[in-house]
């Protein structure tokens, strides 16, 4: 099984990084670079809580993977998101990769029991997140009710608001929250996929007053059987629940899981056995469809299209991304993807569909690149941007701002075409990581005719302006 950011071969990214820096003001509408003291293996957007004329403010979830001298942490940050066409090109080009961005500020620190390998937010509540660490359990946190802690040597870890049990071995990376209902899905080294419902453990505050309650107000919305006077320092004191179902079908570690966007009963999983499996909890604990050879190596990640629920993406250690149509999948044999997207030079670690256009998705890899693809461009003679004989079909943007493996990224559902990405820079800097928040220029993804019309209008405007000399 891969160790996503805990090990891995350093890729030659210096050349592409240097070329990228030269074109930053041209291809980005906004870019913020934030140097991390400790590497983070996960990054997720939280709720947007303030709207301004030029900037919005939004929660951002990160982790700090320490060396043991201080506790590992789950970090809740406040992030300022500059609105489209506000940032000046001079500012965008002047970023310092060694600096800490003024747009990202810590709001709260939770001392996490073990490393934070994966963070996932609950769509039904803007206060609940789940985390995976190097143990069999899933931790559920009410991040607004948790006290702010200081990460110092010897400090007791924070206590999760709820613990989900059911795995028989460590479950480190595979974690998903259901968009339809408050269900949680996990996979682990025990080769199983485990499903929980936390519906009965979240109070009605989550639905009755969530939209009117600002972040940071009120007590925990997770029902607890523990005595508050006992403190908040031992995970073992947290309430726990068992699984709703355990599903068997993989022959090796389950590396990623994802719900069908419209159902809490349908989900998929991928693993180190090179299999893509589709499940339906209503039909039992066995696979509905098992694609035995979805890739030619371990599968690291999977995502289900929220706009077209027939399309599923998988990323693999064979450096490729495959797109499957579940209507064409049959059990056994080699998987037959609609298309295989090949451009990365190292293992793909994360794939995610874009919430703003149904045919667009991103993929990040150990080669230090985050590629943006549009499957509608595949097979077309005329694709957006300059084409070279070596250009990959469907690829229309490369984010090359990281100097080491890009371990995670997340599209911002509240701010169109805005992405947060994080890299583990231990191999190039000896420690730490890089967080980047960025938005490509809208002239890259907008309709070509609309872009050309805008440029013509701008040219006419410039021509009509009186000379300043």
TrEMBL record:
Keyword tRNA processing: no
SUPFAM superfamilies: WD40 repeat-like (SSF50978)
Disordered: region residues: 206-248
Stored SMART domains: WD40
GO term, biological process aspect, one: chromatin organization
Pfam family of the protein (one): CAF1C_H4-bd
Keyword Ribonucleoprotein in record: no
Keyword field: Chromatin regulator, Repeat, WD repeat
InterPro entries listed in its UniProt record: Histone-bd_RBBP4-like_N (IPR022052), WD40/YVTN_repeat-like_dom_sf (IPR015943), WD40_repeat_dom_sf (IPR036322), WD40_rpt (IPR001680), WD_repeat_RBAP46/RBAP48/MSI1 (IPR050459)
Signal peptide residue numbers: none
Sequence ranges assigned to domain Histone-binding protein RBBP4-like N-terminal in this UniProt record: 15-82
Biased composition (Low complexity): 220-229
Family: Belongs to the WD repeat RBAP46/RBAP48/MSI1 family.
Protein name, as recorded: Histone-binding protein RBBP4-like N-terminal domain-containing protein
Source organism per UniProt: Vitis rotundifolia
């Amino acid at each position: 099984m891969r160790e996503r950011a805990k090990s891995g071969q350093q890729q030659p990214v210096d050349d592409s990084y240097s070329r990228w820096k030269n074109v930053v003001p041209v291809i980005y509408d906004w870019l913020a670079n934030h140097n991390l003291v400790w590497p983070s293996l996960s990054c997720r957007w939280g709720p947007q809580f303030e709207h301004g004329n030029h900037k919005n403010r939004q929660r951002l979830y990160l982790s700090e993977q320490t060396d043991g001298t201080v506790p590992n942490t789950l970090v809740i940050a406040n992030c300022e998101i500059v609105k489209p066409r506000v940032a000046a090109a001079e500012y965008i080009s002047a970023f310092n990769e060694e600096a800490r961005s003024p747009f990202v500020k810590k709001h709260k620190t939770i001392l996490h029991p073990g490393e934070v390998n994966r963070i996932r937010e609950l769509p039904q509540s803007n206060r609940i997140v789940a985390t995976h660490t190097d143990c069999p359990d899933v931790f559920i946190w009410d991040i607004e009710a948790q006290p702010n802690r200081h990460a110092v040597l010897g400090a007791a870890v924070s206590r999760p608001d709820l613990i989900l049990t059911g795995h028989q071995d460590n479950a480190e990376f595979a974690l998903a929250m259901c968009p339809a209902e408050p269900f949680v899905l996990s996979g682990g080294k025990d080769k199983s996929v485990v499903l929980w419902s936390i519906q009965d453990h979240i109070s009605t505050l989550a639905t009755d007053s969530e939209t009117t309650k600002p972040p940071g107000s009120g007590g925990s919305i997770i029902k607890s059987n523990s005595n508050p006077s006992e403190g908040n320092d031992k995970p073992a004191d947290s309430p726990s629940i068992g699984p709703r179902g355990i599903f068997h079908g993989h022959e090796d570690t389950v590396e990623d899981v994802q719900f069908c966007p419209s159902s809490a009963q349908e989900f998929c999983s991928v693993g180190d056995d090179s299999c893509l499996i589709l499940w339906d909890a209503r039909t039992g604990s066995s696979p509905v469809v098992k694609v035995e050879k979805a890739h030619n190596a371990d599968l690291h990640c999977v995502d289900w299209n929220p706009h077209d629920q027939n399309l599923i993406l998988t990323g693999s250690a064979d450096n490729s991304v495959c797109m499957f149509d579940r209507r064409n999948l049959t059990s056994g044999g080699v998987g037959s993807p609609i298309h295989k997207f090949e451009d990365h030079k190292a293992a793909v670690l994360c794939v995610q569909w874009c919430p703003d256009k149904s045919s667009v998705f991103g993929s990040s890899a150990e080669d230090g690149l985050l590629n943006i693809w549009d499957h509608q461009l595949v097979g077309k003679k005329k694709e957006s941007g300059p084409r070279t004989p070596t250009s990959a079909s469907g690829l229309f943007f490369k984010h090359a701002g990281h100097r080491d493996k890009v371990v995670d990224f997340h599209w911002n559902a509240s701010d169109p075409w805005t992405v947060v990405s994080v890299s583990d820079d231990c191999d190039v800097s000896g420690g730490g990581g890089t967080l980047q928040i960025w938005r490509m220029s809208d002239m890259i993804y907008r309709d070509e005719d609309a872009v050309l019309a805008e440029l013509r209008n701008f040219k006419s405007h410039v021509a009509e302006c009186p000379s300043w000399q």
